[in-house]
Amino acid sequence: MFSVLKNLGWFFRREKRRYSLGLFLLIAVGVLELLPPRLLGNAIDEIVRGSVTASSLIKYIGLIVALLLFIYWITYIWMHKLFGGSNLVERLLRSRFMNHLMTMTPSFFERNRTGDLMARATNDIRAVSATVGFGMLTLVDSTVYLTVVLLAMGFLVSWKLTLAAVLPLPLIAIAMVFYGKAIHDRYSLAQDAFGDMNDQVLESVSGVRVIRAYVQERLDEKRFADITEDVYRKNMAVARVDAFFEPTIRFCVGLSYIIGLTYGIYLVFRNQITLGDLISFNMYLGMIVWPMFAIGELINIMQRGGASLERIDETTGTQPDVTDLPNPVDVAAGPNGIELKNVTFRYPSSTIDNLIGINLSLERGQTLGVVGRTGSGKSTLLKQLLHEYPTGSGDILISGVPIQKITLDQLHSWMGYVPQEQILFSKSVRQNIQFGLENAGDDKIMDAITAAAFQNDLGTLSDGLDTLVGERGVSLSGGQKQRVSLSRAFIANPEILILDDALSAVDARTEAQIIENIRQERAGKTTLISTHRLSAVEHADQIVVLDNGHITERGTHEELLELNGWYREQYDRQQIENNLSN
C-alpha cells in the first residue's frame, strides 16, 4: 500500500526540510491538543470538590484559549508546508511527464491513445499529488496522532478503560485491508475508462464536420453515451467500495463510545477514576474519531495514488526508440552531402518492408524530387532523414557520418519539415510563423509569407498577422494552412528543407510561384520534395520514382521523360488534365 511513498522517495529527499518541519509541527499540534481536555477535566474535578475559585477558573480559561490560538498558528504553518508540497509535486510530475512526451518517437504515440495520455497528465498526477499532501496528513494522524491520544488516555486517565474502548480497532484494520485492494483494482479500471472517454471526445470534436456530413450525429451521441455509461459504472464501482469506509469506521467508533461510557461510569462509581477523568476520557475518545477515519482515508488515497503512479510510471518509463549514442560525432561543417546506401526500412507496426534497397546520393545545394503512386513510400523515404524511427539495414550518411552518430538536436537543427498534414497551433498567424524563428520581426515574417505566396491571402484575414487560426488552423482553408506551414519553414531558412506533399492544396499557378521562390531563396541549400504533381519537381537536380518501396526510375525531368516509364505516363496525363482545365 505504501509503495507509492517509496516510489516518491526522490521528492521527499528533495523537499526534506519542508516535510521535516511540516510533519514535526503536525505531531506537535497533536500533542498540544491533548492539553485542553486534561485542563477541562481538572477544572471539573475542582468544581466537584468545591475548591474552584474565580482566579483558578480564569487561569484554566486563559490557558485553554492561549493553547487554541497557538495551535491555530502552528496548524497554518504545517498545512502550508504539506499542501504546498502537494502542489509542488504536481507541477514537477506534470513537467516531467510533458518533457518525456517531447522525447518520444512517433511509434510511442501510435501505441498510446491521446485521451489516455491526457488522463494520466491530469487525473492521475492530481491523485499522486493528493498522496503527498492529504496522504501524509492521514498517515501521521492515523499512526502517530492516534498513538499519542491512546497513550494520553492510558497514562492520564486509565489503562483499563483505554484497552476496553479500543477493542473494536482491529475490526477497522481487517476491513481496510479488504477495501484497499478493491479500491486499487477498481480505480485503475475507472482511470482507463476515463482515458477512453477522452479519446472519444477528441475524435468527435476533431471530426465533427465529417460526422455532420454523413449525418452520424445520433450514432456518435449513442457511442458517447455508451462510453460515459461505462465510465459511470466503473466510477460507481469505486464509490461502492469507498462508501463502506465511513459506515465501518462509524460502527467501530460507536462501539468504542458505548464501551468507554459504560465501563467509565462503572469505574467512576468504584472511585477508580474521577468524573473529570471520565469527561477528559470522552473528549480523548472523540479525538480518536478522526484518526480512525484517517485510517480509511489513508488506505483510499494511497491505493488511488499507487494506481495512478503506476500508470504515470508506465508512460515515463517507456524509453524512446531513437536516442543519442554515448559518444556522438559533432558535424561542425554542417550537412555537406546526403547518402543512402542500400537502405531497407520497416515501420515497427508493419509486417513488410516499406523501403527496399534504396541508394541515393545528394550533394549540398541540390534538390531531390520524390514521386510515385499513393503508398509507394515517398513520405517514408523523406522521414529517414528525420531519424524518427530506428534505422533499418544499410547506411544513411550526412557529411559522411552515419545518422545514428549525430545527435538528434544537431540533426533536427538542420531540418525544416512541412508534413502532409499541417499542424498549426491555436495562436495567431504571426505566432505560428515565428515558431520557425523565435521573435522574428515583421520584415522577416513578410519575406517568408511572400516566399510561400501567402501575401494576397493575408489581406483577406480579419486581423492580418494577428488573426487567430483556431485549433489546428480550423479557420483557414487547406491551401492557406499549407502556406502558413511553408512560411514557418522558410523563415527558419534550414540547411535541409523537406516538403512532404506540402503543395497539394494549392492551385498550379500558386505552386509554380512557390517553386520559383524556393529556387531563388534556397540556392546553395538542400531541398527534398515529395509530390503527386510532377510540375513541382521538374526543376529538381534528381528525381526518383518509388513503387512498393523500390526505386524504379531515377534521373532528371528530361531523362525520365525519355525512359517512357511511369513518370512519362503520369506527366502526359497531368499535361492533358491541365490543358482541359484551362
From TrEMBL:
GO molecular-function term, one example from the UniProt record: ATP hydrolysis activity
Origin: domain of life: Bacteria
Pfam families assigned to the protein according to its UniProt record, in alphabetical order: ABC_membrane, ABC_tran
Membrane topology: Multi-pass membrane protein
Gene Ontology CC: one annotated term: plasma membrane
InterPro entries: AAA+_ATPase, ABC1_TM_dom, ABC1_TM_sf, ABC_transporter-like_ATP-bd, ABC_transporter-like_CS, P-loop_NTPase, Type_1_exporter
SUPFAM superfamilies from the UniProt entry: ABC transporter transmembrane region, P-loop containing nucleoside triphosphate hydrolases
Protein name: ATP-binding cassette domain-containing protein
Domain called ABC transporter: residue spans: 338-573
Segments forming domain ABC transmembrane type-1: 21-304
Keyword annotations: ATP-binding, Cell membrane, Membrane, Nucleotide-binding, Transmembrane, Transmembrane helix, Transport
Cell compartment(s), UniProt: Cell membrane
Record SMART domains: AAA
Transmembrane segments: 57-78, 127-155, 161-179, 249-269, 281-301
